[in-house]
Amino acid sequence: MKTENRPTRPWARHHLTGVLATISALAVLLGSGALAAPAQATTDDIAQYYSARPDSVKTEKVELDHNVDVADTFKEADKQGIHILSAELLVGNGGGLYQYDPNLSASKNAESLQSQIKNLTGTSAVVTALEVLYPPKKGSQKQQSSPSATAQGSAVKGEDQVRRAFAGLDETDPTDDDISRIRDDVENSPGTAESHMLKPQANGVPAETNAHPNNVSFRTDDNVGGKRKVTYDIQWMDKSDIKNAPDGWGLEVELYQYNYKLSDVIQRPACPKGTDEKFWADAGLHGTTITYLFNNKKNSSAKAKLEPYLDNNHWSDPCYQGGIGVGFGKPKTLPRWDETILDTKIHQRLTVAMSVPKGNAAWSHIGAASSFVAYNCQAKGKADTDCMGQVGIWPEDKMGGISDMLLLNKNRKWKTPTYFSWSANAVKRPAGLPR
């Protein structure tokens, strides 16, 4: 069977050409004064963080003392001047994430989050942790309030202060609802039976290593509750097991959108303003909600400290590429399932459903990959998109393959909306859904 070429590093976050392009772009920005640090974080500073990730702006993940209501959390953050980047959630018997939209008020963010969770799962969410942005050091004369921080005075700084700010809020337990409906889209899609439940095939194509998932499905849907919907379903079967991964490595699964009208040479942060919106789904991911479930649905989120994060750091990505990805800083905490179906033992299964704001394009070409990335988040306490994949040497000789695995080659020119899957047990890919 002829297989697709797998580049050595299909979409590495940090590579030489990206660094060179980024240095050039930063030189322009610094020369123009665009990265001058104001005294307090403002709407512009938050936007600047997403586009340029300046060192003057710090982020940290803070585990709350107890689970808190979403609306109460966002309201208190607004009152205290705490700038939220994302919220980690408990959703029924699963988990979730929400990427805060700095252009919306606290109440509108809470409404959007719960509305999307309801559309995806049929239930509601509570907050367990927050990723916050600390404003740059004082020194500039510029001072103004952002829609998400209307408090008088300077914003709260420091993990302990942030945690104490929410300690007085009532504890709110998550519902005990089963959210396995998020699997319906992939389980009921054409080709699923051929790719998910096949017996092992002698001429099947193995995964890159025995740590990579060897059964992966993606589905994209145009309009679900006014948003784009992306569903990932990944499984480790037979010889593949996440427990085979080396210590200190996280896992990212990414759907890449392509707009060939944009430059494939110029790289972020030097892309024109509004680039992220020129795809099927808005690659900026502000206001994006995800929910996830693993294995056989039993107390999914509480049993594993997966350290999920939304992969919205597109630093050094070319303008024509807009990623929609999710990462897990500690995937080896995923418990074993070890259920046997049709002579195939499934060690672990992880399903992720994403609700993403629409971009300006009716469709986009797509590609996909799964990648192991080094865990460099010890100082932050939990994984996030900025600290993952900074420094690390993948033990290729020991693992028998590279860290990245191409799942859908962009040269196939598949378009959204569609369903596709890759399985080590399949001898033929299912056809994409017709447009």
UniProtKB/TrEMBL annotation:
Signal peptide range: 1-36
Key words, A-Z: Signal
Chain positions covered by the region annotation Disordered: 137-222
Record keyword Signal present: yes
Keyword Signal attached: yes
Biased composition (Low complexity): 137-148
Protein name, per record: Uncharacterized protein
